[in-house]
Amino acid sequence: MTNSSDIDPTFITLEQQLRKMGLVRIQSLDASIRVDLRYGTTDNIVGRDLYQNFGEAYLQPEPAQMLMSANALLKEKHANFTFYVYDALRPRRVQQILWDALDHPPEERVKYIADPQKGSLHNYGAAVDLTILNTTTNQLLDMATDFDHFGILAYPSEEEALLAKGELTEKQVQNRLLLREVMTQVGFIISQSEWWHFGALTREEAAKRYSIVE
């Protein structure tokens, strides 16, 4: 059992805040979805745990229901597949840390990390980063790159050219297409530079409907 004195009160408050704002814990709707928040580990672009003791994936209710529907579609196609979530709601203070850590000019940086001053869909709880897990083998599908690979190999927009040059395999592209198919079928919007990132709506629409989580 975790001693309450070991838990950072900031993130207890965050979970309480999220529930008060009406956000939904993904696994409370579908326990088959796996959650591995990379920014809650040291296996990320900054090499440190940015979430501390906060390890649950939250979304606004409508995006959460969309995700459940997409996972159901995935299971209709492959009963042993399920979603594996890298990130969902992300407080803006964490967005700022990621923005500051990325060693790219601002005009290049926005391809990978939304400007925290403008707010990211993640900051509203309206975007999710994910891949697909084969529960039979307990292996992630081969998507050619890991999460947060900041390079052209992760670009959905370049897949045809990368395939032609032999830098992506047919299977890797098929795996990405499967993920995109089930996500876009329920209304998610793809990213042209990150195969793992999906938004439930535009940033302008999110700003009208939701509040940023600081």
From TrEMBL:
Q: At which residues is there a site annotated Transition state stabilizer?
A: R90
Q: Which residues form the active site?
A: E194 (proton donor/acceptor)
Q: What is the lineage of its organism?
A: Bacteria, Pseudomonadati, Bacteroidota, Cytophagia, Cytophagales
Task: Give its E.C. classification number.
Answer: 3.4.13.22
Q: What is this protein called?
A: D-alanyl-D-alanine dipeptidase
Q: Which GO terms describe its molecular function?
A: D-Ala-D-Ala dipeptidase activity; metallopeptidase activity; zinc ion binding
Give the InterPro entries listed for this entry: A_A_dipeptidase, Zn_M74/Hedgehog-like
Q: Which PANTHER family match?
A: D-ALANYL-D-ALANINE DIPEPTIDASE
Keyword Protease on entry: yes
To which protein family does this belong?
Belongs to the peptidase M15D family.
The protein's UniProt keywords, in alphabetical order, are: Cell wall biogenesis/degradation, Dipeptidase, Hydrolase, Metal-binding, Metalloprotease, Protease, Zinc
Q: Report the domain of life of the source organism.
A: Bacteria
Chain sites annotated for binding Zn(2+): H122, D129, H197
Cofactor section: Zn(2+)
Describe the function of this protein. Catalyzes hydrolysis of the D-alanyl-D-alanine dipeptide.
